[in-house]
Amino acid sequence: xxxxxxxxxxxxxxxxxxxxxxxxxxxxxxxxxxxxxxxxxxxxxxxxxxxxxxxxxxxxxxxxxxxxxxxxxxxxxxxxxxxxxxxxxxxxxxxxxxxxxxxxxxxxxxxxxxxxxxxxxxxxxxxxxxxxxxxxxxx
Length: 139
What we know:
The chain has helices spanning 2-18, 20-38, 40-92, 122-128. The protein has 139 residues and is mostly helical. Helix 1 crosses helix 2 (20-38). The N and C termini lie far apart (135 Å).
């Protein structure tokens, strides 16, 4: 009889141990289910808010990926165009090639003269361009 009680004790003690993870998951699921049944509006608001956030994030992610794809295609076209121009220029020009960084046009230096109309207000600049009485000669 003592051995029978020990065996029963071992079986009950080993049952929760074998169901450890599964039992915890089932218990957690049962608690969540009871809470959702007790507070349906709270859970509905969570689903609405986080569902909307997930949809918006998915939309923006896909839009970004499409934009990146378009940029890659345009970049490939530009690269092919540049290589075609480079090969055409290479066949007609001498071996003296300029690097791409020095091929840029120089910025206007500070010693260059700025037109006088650039410093005037828009109305003053427009007043200079109106025909004067001397320009109204008959044609």
